[in-house]
Amino acid sequence: MKKIFVFFVLASVSAGLLFMGCGQKTPDSPGKVKVMRVKVIEGSNAPVIGADHPGCVLDGDLGTWNQYKESLESEDPAVKEQFRDYDIRRYNEGGFENGYVELIDGVYHMLTPELYVNGGQAGYWTPARVGHWTSADGDVWERQSTIVYGDNSTGIRDNTWCPTFYWNTSENAWSIYWRGSGAIFRHKSVVSGRSGIYGPYREEWSFVGDMEGISYPEVMYGISSIGNFYTAKDGRLFTFITASNMQNGKANWSNSLAYSSSGNPDGPWVRLQTPAPVFNFTENPVVAIYDGIYYCVFDDLIEMKTLGIGWSEDGINWNQYTLDLELGDYVPWSANNWLVTSMRTAYGIVKEDDGNFSIWFSAFQRGAGMPYSSLGGFYAIGKIRVSIEFGEE
Q: 200-259 pLDDT, tens per residue?
């Protein structure tokens, strides 16, 4: 795997540079390969969704999270009464992780797990709720609703990972799929038609266990996540499945492809043995298709300071690259002092009207101004814009 080095100017996030890795042989030019060239043209001056806009779900004025924590130690009966019906699930202390962004009918839609608090302590990964956010421009976001709350008491609903939209033509309705601990769930829009994407949603289907039809006996930890659903050039409906095993003393999160034999996300699914795995030391691939080219963004887990990006001409045979952001401890992302120490999950890639691409991601934000977090930081959502061109070498 080669790296695409991206350089940020801290005073004003501006030009970046590319460079590519392996590509696909071109039949029209024997001996040459088709390669992707990526250039960063704009970075996040600040999180598009951060600790100052964490997506709290409030019913009336129940006071701040810090006031609630103080009330736990108070001996004042009036204070105790004020917070008697306080619901910790309405807050979001930890941030965002493992979500999905897509431009749908001219509106940017985001599904994201929100790491709300748990028993007065940071919930960290579980339980988490899935929030639905929208934006007119991909920069300013408004929270619409809660799709589902995680529940640690069930054993299968504590994780709410990998939520993704799917337009079901035969049902004339939207579905949201997400993965729990050893289970997959589907929620269906109550309102028919494209406008039903705004909800409400009801739980329609679930499958306990790994994806029906998928066998992964060689891995230690089983399937941890699934990707969004897309149609490959051969007409089959595909998704990525992430599983992990130990390799040279290190957990290798790898992604393989699976296709639905029924043609819809309910399965059953058949795992492709070749190519397998498609991406190594990666997680949570999200695929988008533009002008006959398949693009994919994903976690790059080798250093936790990079974003993965891939491309394919058929949706099956993929090329893997890395956007290297060269982050060090407490290095500001930009002049606005967004201190990023760890890149996390890629949320999606969208081709804009000017021909360039926007990529959303979560990253661990440190520093002052974290009013909700006892983690010493907050998993915020950022965005970069890149140009992508293809050439031969």
A: 999 988 876 556 556 665 555 566 778 999 999 999 999 998 877 666 666 677 888 999
287 is a domain residue: yes
Strand partners, 35: 391
The single residue listed with the structure tokens 């090329």 is 319
Q: Is residue 36 part of a domain?
A: yes
Containing domain of residue 129, as a range?
4-56+91-392
Q: What's the CA gap between 290 and 286, in Å, rounded? A: 14
Give the Cα separation of 208 and 222 in Å (integer).
13
Beta strands at 183-189 and 173-179: parallel, antiparallel or unpaired? antiparallel
Rounded to whole angstroms, the Cα distance separating 306 from 323 reads 6
Any domain includes 203: yes
DSSP 340-393: EEEEEEEEEEEE-TTS-EEEEEEEEEESS--TT-SSSEEEEEEEEEEEEEEEE-
| Predicted TM-score (pTM) of this structure | 0.83
Q: Which of 24, 5, 7 is nearest to 315 (CA)?
A: 24
**Residue 132 to residue 173: CA distance in whole angstroms:** 17
